[in-house]
Task: structure prediction
Amino acid sequence: MILFWAAILAISTLLYVLLDGFDLGVGIISAAAGGHARRDAMIDAIAPIWDGNETWLVVTGVVLWGAFPLVYATLLSAFYLPLILMLAGLILRGIAFEFRHRTERWRWLWDASFAAGSLVAAFMQGLTVGALVEGLPIANGRYAGGDLGWLSPFAVLCGVGLCIGYALLGACWLVRKCHGDVRESAYRLIPTLSLALLVFLVAVFSFALIEHLQVMNRWLERPYLFIFPAIGIVAAILLAASLQRRSDHAPFRIVAIIFVAAFGTLALSFWPYMIPFSITIEEAAAPHSSLAFMFWGAGLFVFPLMLLYTATNYSVFRGRIRPDTDHYH
Amino acid sequence: MDMSALMLSRIQFAFTVSFHIIFPSFTIGLAAWLTTIEALHLATKRPAYRIVFEFWLKIFGIAFGLGVVSGIVMAFEFGTNWSELSRVSGPIQGPLLTYETFTAFALEASFFGVLLFGRQRVTPWFYLLSTAMVALGTTFSAFWIMVNNSWMQAPVGYAVENGAFASTDWSAIIFSPVVWVRFPHMLLGSYLTGAFCVAATGAWYLLRGDFRAEARIMLRMGLYLAAVLIPAQLFFGHLVGDFVHDDQPAKFAAIEGRWHDEQPASEVLIAIPDPASETNRFAINVPVLGSLIASMSLASKETGLTDFPRQDRPPVLIPFFAFRIMVGCGVVMLLLAWIGTYLSIKERIEQNRLLLWCLFLSFPLPYVAILTGWFTAEVGRQPWTVFGVLRTADALTPFLTTREATISLVVFCSVYLFIFSFGVLYIYRLLRAGPLGSLALPPKAAIPSRPMSVLDQAALPASRNFAAGEQP
Result:
């Protein structure tokens, strides 16, 4: 039962990162859209699905609360300020989808809040993951780092890295959803962003080695973890090839594989800890009565339904955007 | 423990949750109404229904968006500010909110996209289904939130294990009688909010003499629905009162402004309670009515606040006044809905400008009633977060600093004020422009002289470059 909910948590988190990742990424790229028509096309490419994507963040949050209350309580209170700022970012970008169509004169304001909100939310997510990898100060099962205990150069580096990663995912999404100009400039962005992401990954690994982060011991204990960087290298080669061939659908899938590999790396280097290296999955798990109650309804029946709704949503809006009908009424 | 961090966190939670509830209470009702209108349109093919639907869908879009973004905050705020509550009651509240997210949010969010953008991509039946799914999702969400909150008001089916709550009986929690009076009370409140907003808009257009066909649909449907639902709402409100009387006697005494035991008890209609002297100033009392309301008896003894030690009493002023404002709003809505329905059936309502003005200006009433109802419930539960088991002061994140709490409160207040001002402005503009405001104008590239009469299914233009209320 504990494993089941750990798996659901992992799947939800991964889905969130992949799905909201690309629409946050489109938000970040939209800052440099260069013109109203292009920005409109970018936003049309994510407007019908962003809300569903963001729902996976809430899913992750409540599964964490229901199945692993200790981790929910510890993490959310430890990352107080980053999470508040992430929420502010998500609010400002979420509201922009509606508000930008309600005004001509002030549209720039909502376009700015869309881009800035996306950037802040992505940065804060990366920062919290980075701080978690580096290790939170925990004493007696309770966070003991103070207001800014999560702030470190490594965490900031991870924040920047996730922004680049999301932007890359966003560019790949635009390539498959948009026409003309937007598609072309997205194609031009992909190599730059891929290179930036590579530089970031090298920097992260060097940093972790130089600082002797505890996580790195895991790599010595568990050599099978090296399969993930290998997947990353293969994916990078495939990505370059797909850009050569200009196959619109391939880049998104390949970058998604890179994200899955990165996620797998993190998950397996943490295992069996949820907050490395102080709280394990077993310690954090809710009593059996809670896990079983969630399993027999939400887990077994509703979770597959949620995947079905998500699939339905994506299948209704499959293919490229249609400029004539997909505009907001 | 930092007392000012506690106070700031309470203010922040009260502020963010009050802001949030405004939007779901409107969209729960509106979603159900949109489903009805869309079904009527499919059945009758009357174009006015389609116009009314498209018009309210845009307003629904803005309100739903505000509800979504302010709702995500709630899912995190339990953990950021109330980590002890999250840890201790997580095994019970966590699964309940997991059910909410799984059954409601995923449904709403996926089909909301179809609702706003998918009209041209799906069949009419699938579109109607999507509308119904969104409505169903909002209702599920309200249900689980009421299960969760009712457990905090009247905890049942739990035991304490290793310093945390664990459920011993989930069906006792979900099928608690408290849930089944408070959930209908909230749901009816939402339907009434939708009904009054729609009716008020119809009244406004009739006063202006615009969009008569659509305005009549709005006014009639809103009024008839309200006229039927308000008596039911008063009944469920009474049942909620019964639960408070039995399970939360201190809250009941605070609402009643009753300081000392009385037999038979009088009812304080209005007064200014004075906590320092534990008496009421300027009180207008009705003898015996207090016993009648509380226990349906002419001689029952009713509990006063001074029976409880001071540290276990809720504040008196907020529950006392909030409750009276809620009931006052309910009575005014009842009168408006019944008089309006009577005149509407007699076909005389359109000549009665005074009543139309009253209806037009009545749209804040349901919001005020919902907010004050929640103030009564939540402030009246103090000093407890989980009633009788976990005090609010013990629920706070133990290491939260005043600085953090101040920063977050300032961030939330400024962001919410910003988006609320623009949200209200945009909704007002859409309402002012009216049902044909954005549809009557052809899209930029279309034939300029498209006659209004061809405003049918296929010809509804996508006029994104024209924002309602602004000159194109």
Remarks:
- Residues 18 and 256 of chain A are 7 Å apart (CA to CA).
